Amino acid sequence: MRMNLSVCTISFRHQLIALSDIATWAQQHGFAGIELWGAHAINLEPEDQFDAAWLGSLGLEVPMISDYLPLEGSEVRALRHLERLCRLANRWEAPKLRTFAGNRGSAVVSTEERKAWVARLRNLTSLAAAHGVQLVVETHPNTLADTLASTRQLLEEVDHPAMGINFDVLHLWEAGDDPLESLRVLAPRVCHFHLKNIDKRENLGVFAPANVYAAAGSRDGMVPLLEGAFDYRTFLQSLGSMGLLDASLEWFGPDVKNVLARDCRAITSLTGDLQAGMLAADACHQSLAV
């Protein structure tokens, strides 16, 4: 197993730093891509010099644009916003567009609301597919993809081949699901991973959007990936047979560059060791077969 690691521009949401500087830094520290926050992609729209060709000249790509498509209110407005995002995805040659499945948890959404949200998601997915973009729903609290059971049900209800899953490991663990079992069930639709960690389960509320997006919000409990309560070493070691995977390091805390660079090195080293071990085992099996 190897990982195409991306840095998220949302990590720099409260800093005055240009995309060109982020890209140069990402290239220098071993990242393969940049996950563009939708707000940043929109704000860059008038800047013609920034596109897939420019980023490709640095050896980088945009694997995904991350935004939030409303499942309530005007569907015309939601579809219009999606069309704009799809045009931006095409500009950046990003194959995936991330969204959330609503803004309330599966346990509190009524049957009729769920039907309406599913219908909206199906329409959004169809439009994205028409633009050559895969719509990717993130496993996240307070959405219809907040547990393994509800996420699986959602995929069956939407029933569209262009809908994928952005597998947020920590949030499924937060829901009480086993991430490895969840991945086994959802694997055919998983096309991206979000990786982050917390020092202890009691602090998971720090990732609530209202807190994360606030410049003065708490960052208590956010820790580097391999130093938290969730055991990423075991999780990553269990992905040995999955080949090349797209993943983004989702860091919302301080000291952004240093933490991301350390995490990138740590994961690259860990997955590199796994890859070397698998190759050595294959070579051993081949020699014994001779």
UniProtKB/TrEMBL annotation:
The name of this protein is: 3-dehydroshikimate dehydratase
- Give every Xylose isomerase-like TIM barrel domain span: 25-255
Q: Which PANTHER family match?
A: HYDROXYPYRUVATE ISOMERASE, XYLOSE ISOMERASE-LIKE TIM BARREL DOMAIN-CONTAINING PROTEIN
